Amino acid sequence: MAINSTTNEKTESEKEGISPRLWKPWKISDSGLKFLAIQESGIENGTFYDKKHKKKYPVTNGFILTCYLDQRDLPTIGMGHLVKPSDKISIGDSIPLEKAQEFASNDLASIEEKVNCGVKVPLHQYEYDSLVSIGYNCGTNGISKLLESINTKKYSEIPSAIEKYRAKGNSRRRKQEASLFFSGEYNANH
């Protein structure tokens, strides 16, 4: 038996007006993944030049599809995926774009979980994508204070906090992530 009732009380969303922001669970969008991949490689399509090792690698949709040594001399592929022995990939080996995207999805899982657990307020998809990009760059422990700031619901203050957040050596990236958070514009071009 269904029971219908009415109430004079307004829901929180009615009191505050309907927000176009979404509640969790969130998942990085295709645009967010592409933005992040370009942040990592520095280019959407073309050639990544490794200055330290003086080598060139092709880039597709922001992903470096050839295994190379990163700046710490660790084998890396795709969107900064650190190659493990279980990956069975050697320096110079290439992988298809789909495999690079699979690595990225797996590598992002802990970051996405951290953002989903840490954020207690609704977000636009692009705001979430911005936070995942920062988390991927800073690590799961590196974004805790920023997530606390998000929970104040002072959305207009967040972009300036992002620009200052752990920005040493990453000021351009933080500006782009702040712009994404504020405007929804996925511009990661260097």
Overview of the molecule:
- With 190 residues, the protein is an alpha+beta fold.
- It has a single domain, classed as Orthogonal Bundle (Lysozyme).
- Helices cover 42% and strands 13% of the residues.
- Strand 2 (55-60) and strand 3 (63-69) form a beta hairpin.
What key attributes describe this structure?
about 190 residues; globular; about 40% helix; 7 helices; about 15% strand; disordered N terminus; five-stranded antiparallel sheet; alpha+beta; Lysozyme; 5 strands
Encode the helix/strand succession as letters.
HHEEEEEHHHHH
The percent range for helix content is 40-55%
Number of domains: 1
Spatially, the strands of the biggest sheet line up as 1-2-3-4-5
Instruction: Give the DSSP E fraction (strand runs of 2 or more residues).
Output: 5-15%
Q: Main sheet, how many strands, which sense, barrel?
A: 5 strands, antiparallel
**Overall radius of gyration:** 19 Å
N-to-C span:
61 Å
CATH A-level architecture:
Orthogonal Bundle
CATH class: Mainly Alpha
CATH-defined topology: Lysozyme
Please, how many helices? 7
Mean pLDDT: 88
Poorly predicted parts: 1-15
Enzyme class: hydrolase
Protein name: Lysozyme
Pfam families: Phage_lysozyme
EC number: 3.2.1.17
